[in-house]
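Progress narrative, work stream C.
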Amino acid sequence: MKSLRPRVEIQALRAYRVRQDAEVKLNQNESPLDWPDEMKTHVLARVAARPWNRYPSQDAAAVRAAFARGAGISPEMVAVTNGSNEAILALVEAFATARSVVLTAPGYSMSTPLALIGGARPTPVPLRGDFSLDVPAMLGAAEATDAALIFLASPNNPTGNAFSRQDIARVLEASRALVVVDEAYAQFAEDSFLPDLTPYPHLVVLRTCSKAFALAGARIGLIAAREEVIAAISKALPPYNVNVFAQEAALAALARPDAVAERVRLIILERERLAEAMAALHGVTVYPSQTNFLLFRTPLAADILFERLLRQGVLVRDVSHQPLLERCLRVTVGTAQDNARFIHALKASLASGR
């Protein structure tokens, strides 16, 4: 029936699917370190004490306040979302439907689909060969398309590098569009734009609890921006979008910055050990990372190497379909045991020849 046809843009999309069937799962940038039992018990007790027959806080007010305290901003400058993907979609729906969204290529895999789902026109701009921002090209694309949003993931996924502060500042200073800096991996990086919300009224910073906070299962995203921007985004968000468990888990995580910092320290140590072991293998190029994953290139076609690793029980992400990433894959930093298993499988796969 003609009336049941989805929008043309939706028909062209592929539903998001990732492989889950492997002994060593290093494909989704999850934390390899789970919460300690005492913290889980604390959260579960808090959830059990809440009335389940009542809706949660409409705008996760306690979470907003806790994040704002840590960031040194007011709660009115914070919105809480059901994962950062909901944050991106709400931004598109509030500001960019039927308009252009400029984003990087390569970049976060869901940014283009979410722009399309929100009714915007994605305008990809290639990064330079060293994965840095091509600022003139970004600004030129924004001007030519009268862009409503410029979306930058820094550190960038899947390349792993953070864009220079100077380059992002040049975009902020020259663009009339809302500039969204997705800092999903901020705790692993050397810099953040959270302190810059006051001088730049058109800056939006996104955060997530899925990585450093080890709460991928709770689905918690955070938006920080000027009050008038948050007020507009809040109108695009569904009410009661963050459930009771997610709110309590976020509060517990925000109350323990020491636990987050220690988790990040251990993952970074393991990342450096993993990068050194990978780089020691003949033909493997490992790119610098300020995240909890590593981008790497080998002489093998990415799909062939992906399958060889999978046959040995190791699951990584093939990112070679994105610009500049021929023969590239992405591996999440796992536990020491997982990483050793990956190195063994990678070495065996490369030894098998082309």
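Work stream C, second folded protein:
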Amino acid sequence: MFNARMGSQPITFFACLFIACLFLSTMAIAAPSITLSRKTGPPTIGIRVSGSGFAPNAKVDIFFGAKDEVLVVTDGQGEFKDARIHAPRNARPGEHRVEALERDNGKRAHEPFLVQTDWRQLHREDMTRLNPFENVLNPKTARNLGLKWSYATGHFVISAPAVANGLVYVSSADSRVYALNASTGSEAWRYTTGSFVYSSPAVANGLVYFGSYDYNLYALNASTGTKLWSYATGSEIDSSPTVAEGVVYVGSLDHNLYALNASTGAKLWSYTTGGDVDSTPVVANGVVYVGSNDDNVYALNASTGAKLWSFATGDYATGLAVADGVVYASSNDHNLYALNASTGSKLWSFTTGYFVVSSPAVVNGMVYFGSVDGNVYALQASTGTKLWSYATGNSVESSPAVANGVVYVGSADFNVYALNASTGVKLWSYTTGNQVPSSPAVANGVVYVGSTDFSVYAFGLPDGDGADQGASKRP
């Protein structure tokens, strides 16, 4: 006979199991979560935060680290969308926590955000050789710089390093480009071309670009070093490429400046000058500027290659920078020129004691550059008036890098220097095994530079001196 009491036990058990599962499911649905519009970027960058799983019509504070950035109120479903915050100016390189905290009941959700102050191409995206986000090194801490690591390549390292997403990219006269771990200097990958590589790498949208003396411009996967495409010009490529708005611009010793589709390598246009083009193109406000050893600076429409103007210097125009409507141009006629960026008319010039090969850096109304006369100069950007100079022990072909009040530059006297940007006072130097024509890159509290002693160097602060304090506190 059927026992009702016994038969009810399985029903009670499954009912309880169902209720428990429903409860847990409800809890899982109600668990708060947030999403970020981006996962990495420099200090001051904007971030949009969206969240769900909070109480309806609740007040939610959104923090970056311990800093309360904004208060939002959820909708009737406990959600909010596109709350705008910024990575704080003083957020050190490293992983930080973006957290949404509900005021009434302490519900919270968080996501990591990686602060990086990368240096992706010779001129950086601002075309002035400035890292405006550097917040570890300054005139006080730069005095404590020390060697973090060095890496030996097979030949001269003349190129400027590029730093992006935890890797340092550098080319060498051993026909290779190397990708090195930015923290340790260990090799991630290398790529071998058919000849010397003096061109400085540029990194954009997951690709690394560089030219070779085998006549080709290369585009590689920045993570793996796999070749995606190459474009053959008519001669050697000494020029360092510049990437802007999906286009890569590069000069060749075949007298041409090329504009190529950055994704495919398809030629968009080329412009023929009267001489070799081994200077680095600079792109600003829809115009590409480049120097040629036909002794001219050219301004071309960046979309079409149509010539807008040219300015004749007294010798080969070597390096450029563009800032605040002015083109600053180095020349082997011993001068630095300031030209109106729209018309090419000369605003002023400053004469040094010998060739000016170094590309200028323009920061806070000052222009910094080196000369083969052995000096680093700082001029007033508006007038060309000399503010200070610093004498190294030999020629300065390196292009200065400026970050947070410090000028970093190499010299043929075998040294790399850190100078106070306001006064020119020497803060620090390091002696390598040979000349330093390489232009430094400053990223994430570290200075990277090459030397003709066949090595790449990384200099940083000792642990506990600010370099290792990236992670921010929780709210």
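The helical segments are 4-30. No further action is required on this item.
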